[in-house]
Design brief:
The chain has about 425 residues and is α+β, with helices and mostly antiparallel strands. It has helices at about 15-25, 30-45, 90-95, 135-140, 170-185, 200-235, 240-255, 255-265, 270-280, 285-295, 300-310, 315-320, 325-350, 360-370, 380-405, 405-410, and strands spanning about 1-5, 5-10, 70-80, 100-115, 115-120, 130-135, 150, 155-160, 165-170, 185-190. The chain has two domains: about 1-40 and about 200-410, MetI-like fold (Orthogonal Bundle), CATH 1.10.3720.10; about 70-195, no CATH class. Strands 6-5-4-3-10 form a five-stranded antiparallel beta sheet. It has a three-stranded antiparallel beta sheet with strand order 7-8-9. A two-stranded antiparallel ribbon has the order 1-2.
Length: about 425
């Protein structure tokens, strides 16, 4: 055991990791950043299970309520579509969303007249002065066969045929109660709506999935390439080092954004293409760090012992050297994660990133940057603030990891 600042640590086989973890926990800013990142990861994983709009890409568009301010409330009339819907699993809903079984109509007011519902369309003006819309009660509550119209008899019973061919009869009072309870809802948009009438909160939450996915996969690609090339250059040296360093310097000399744009044009626009393009431009820093670290420890005694025991070079590199140099790589990866989020947002803003209708924070800014000079600046500021907070969190956690993994601290302890 040893004492440091009156705190006791137990030396074990993983003592260096324990010291780093204990020191990271004392960095409150890094811990808050970690909690923020984990919270966003949870949002990205749950996806459509927790979004207010669970349709694919959160793309329910209601032009009547476009660009409404945060906290906006409106009555929505849910008209059942005349088609049968197949049940989906919770996993499918979480990953891809579910097709909306309703046609949504914003209404200002409504009343029942016989077997119909008369609604005034919402306009957002004062007075509202919207169109009067009429719907059959059965058509609102049930998916009907298009060729057969509902009929009401003298006993106030409505007879109709569903889309599946089933004949049903329901009383007027029961139909009205069903519509009031299940088909007329008061919805509140916490972050308002965008210029297409989509829920801003849902778009922002699904955009989190895009940004984090680009970060994780592009960093994984950069680690895969960077560790391989950097370890080969640092361990073998000689002509291998010269060739790899020449290639690294060539890639390093090209501006990152221009290189990403060039790769994107070569691979095409899309979700997966962004992962590959960003990952193929971020490996250089990882390779340089790995090479420098291996050059510093390749002549250490434990490496010489591995050679004396007849271990092959790949085993010495991956099982004995790399575990001792991963600290700086983790710090670089945190910074690369933040850079990947910025690059993806920039590409989406330019229109060569993820393509509509898939929501992305960069796409949201592109669609609404003109509102900055109008009274709807929040439409661009909200996704911009999300990008800023995510990048800041990764930079802060990277700084925290740098301090926690500081070799001088561990040696002093």
């Amino acid at each position: 055991m040893f004492l440091h600042r009156k705190k006791k640590y137990i030396i074990s086989s993983g003592s260096l990791s324990l010291i780093a973890w204990q020191r990271l926990k004392r960095n409150r800013i890094a811990v808050v950043s970690m909690v923020f990142i984990l919270f966003n990861i949870l949002i990205a994983l749950l996806g459509y299970l927790i979004t207010p709009d669970s349709s694919p890409y959160a793309n329910t568009q209601l032009p009547e309520i476009a660009a409404e301010k945060p906290g906006f409330r409106v009555k929505l009339l849910l008209l059942t579509k005349n088609e049968t819907t197949e049940p989906v699993s919770w996993y499918h809903r979480m990953a891809s969303g579910v097709k909306n079984p309703y046609t949504t109509v914003p209404v200002y007011n409504y009343k029942f007249t016989g077997d119909e519902l008369e609604a005034e369309e919402y306009t957002g003006m004062q007075p509202n002065d919207g169109r009067l819309l009429r719907f059959k009660l059965a058509d609102i509550a049930y998916p009907l066969m298009a060729s057969v119209n509902p009929v009401m008899d003298k006993d106030s019973m409505v007879h109709f045929v569903t889309a599946s061919g089933e004949q049903q009869s329901v009383g007027i009072a029961e139909l009205r109660q069903t519509i009031i309870e299940d088909h007329i809802v008061q919805k509140r948009y916490l972050l308002g709506t965008d210029r297409f009438g989509r829920d801003m909160l849902s778009q922002l939450m699904i955009g989190t999935r895009v940004s984090l996915s680009v970060g994780f996969i592009s960093v994984f690609i950069s680690l895969l390439i960077g560790i391989l090339l950097g370890s080969m250059a640092g361990f073998f040296r000689g002509w291998v080092d010269n060739v790899i360093m020449w290639f690294i310097n060539v890639v390093w000399s090209i501006p990152t954004l221009l290189l990403v744009i060039a790769i994107t044009f070569a691979l095409g626009k899309g979700f997966w293409q962004i992962f590959i393009a960003v990952g193929l431009t971020m490996w250089v820093e990882v390779a340089r760090v790995i090479r420098g670290q291996i050059l510093g420890i390749r002549e250490k005694e434990f490496v010489e012992a591995g050679r004396a025991l007849g271990y092959r070079s790949p085993r010495i590199i991956f099982r004995h050297i790399l575990p001792n140099v991963m600290g700086p790589v983790i710090v670089v990866s945190a910074a690369n994660f933040a850079s990947a989020i910025l690059i993806e947002a920039g590409l989406s803003f330019l229109g060569i990133g993820v393509q509509p209708p898939m929501p992305s924070w960069g796409t949201m800014i592109r669609d609404h940057y003109a509102y900055i000079i109008l009274d709807g600046a929040y439409l661009a500021l909200i996704p911009g603030f999300a990008i800023m907070m995510m990048v800041l969190a990764f930079m802060l956690i990277g700084n925290g990891l740098r301090d926690a993994l500081d070799v001088k601290y561990i040696e002093k302890a």
